[in-house]
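Hey,

The postdoc asked me to send both predictions to you directly instead of through the lab channel. I've kept everything plain text so nothing gets mangled by the mail client. Protein one:
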Amino acid sequence: MEANPPVVTVRFNKFLPYWAVFLTDLRQTARSWVYRLWVLMTVAAAAGLLLYKVGLHKEAGMFQSAAAQSGDLFRVMVVGSLALVVVLAVSAISAERGTVADSVLSRGISRHQYFLAKWHARLVVVTATFAALACLVLLATYFLFKDDAQSDLSLVGGLAAVLAVCAVLAAIVSWGVTIGALTNTTVLGITVFWLVLYGSGFLLSLLPEPWPSPERQLARLKFVLQGQYNPAVLTQLLVASAAACVGAATVGLLGFSKRDV
């Protein structure tokens, strides 16, 4: 009498669909023209401004400290990156509106996993890219203004400045992905998100000094790069950005789970 064949059990990893969408979105974002344009524009603007500052210092004798140079570059990078970062964030889900139903209904992935994978992928791409570019800017500034950087730039201050800007960008990306998931088209999502950004920035600029303002925070970056910052204030910024990210994810998960795909 023949023995019964062994029963083969297949274990299904419930996080596999999330991981597949996460990796796919990382590759697609890195290959998109918006991402490449953002990187090229940031590098070109930073290199051009650095060369201009070096030439101005050597020819005209005008000089700013290394921290001031890096603060100006950070301001250019943040302001110049904002438009393309908004497009990257809002288009995470809204640009795939025609294929979301196929992804959710035909590929065994829940709406929550789909949203989280898209959100985490855009967070990683934007924050990691900006952190890498910012570190390159700090290194370039250090070597071009080495004599002054030894007494002006601070390693801890540079890391704190990069961390602070990345935290703000993380909050922007989180709300961008959420608004893109709740709007019908990418253009509508970008329009709504710009109204929210400008409105919140204008309201914050009207608040008194203890409240954070985008303009005031960018102006203080040169002092942060020197190491002159309050760790408690930085901690509050990180906590506020984390709360904004969690709030955006909560709204996005609840809203996207109830929308027709």
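Protein two:
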Amino acid sequence: MYNTVIPDMRCIKRILGERQPNSHKGTYGYVGLVGGSPEYSGAAKLAGLSCAAMRSGAGVVRLMVPKSIMHAVMPYVVESTLCALPDRQGYIAYDERELRTAFKGLKAIGFGMGVGQKGDNLEYLKLLLSLPIKLILDADALNTLSKHLYLLDDKVADLLLTPHVGEFERLSGISKNDILSNPIEHAVAFAKRYKLTLVLINHESVITDGERVFVNKRGTVGMATAGSGDVLSGILTALAGYVDDMLEVAIAGTYINGLAGEIALETDGNNSFSMVASDTAFAVKKAVTTILNA
């Protein structure tokens, strides 16, 4: 039996901390978001452009997308900086020299949102896991990792995985029914085995580093829609720019995301049927304000 904690607003406020008068953008971290492909350019936009990352407090967000889809992303770039990645027909291609330049100076990187399965995902994954950064993996990065779990044994990166139940089934080899029957036990065992932080996403998400266990109860059924994971990844990556403990990044990120979803739903007249992921992204600022004023 695990001692599970349900975080409250005071806990999240403590994690976010206070902004000091003599601080600057570098104080709050340079972070990067690697995502996008011809079919899924919207995933990168949601993570980096729909206010999710910047509104969560990162100092500078570097949005990194395949060169061929930059025209689709560029109109949405305002506060973020945009970096073109080498590509083949719109999918990420591996060039170590270019990538090391693109990743230079970043404290945290989120990888996987909308990259698809036709690019050099494995090579990107190997490089990112070898870097001394905070690394958040989502979506297609998780699908690639599930076939190459041996990479986790020699990782340097401080790693956070954000699988939903189906993705965790592929990662762990455990059936969905077994996962759902005892999500905490399976999440803790996986996080402990691979020495990482895990957010097992469900209607009540389990957050663990293999020792400590938290359960996030914030959120709404309206968030069960395409792109919600991309918004969460943007928030988590931003927080990793200035929050040192990766478990606290996960706790605060899931809470802010869930609260933003609740605010978005209430703002739109409690219409969960018509809710989309960008509604949550645009409510992140209000969610953070609510927490800071608690």
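Summary for protein two, as requested: The CA atoms of residues 37 and 115 lie 5 Å apart.

Thanks,
C.
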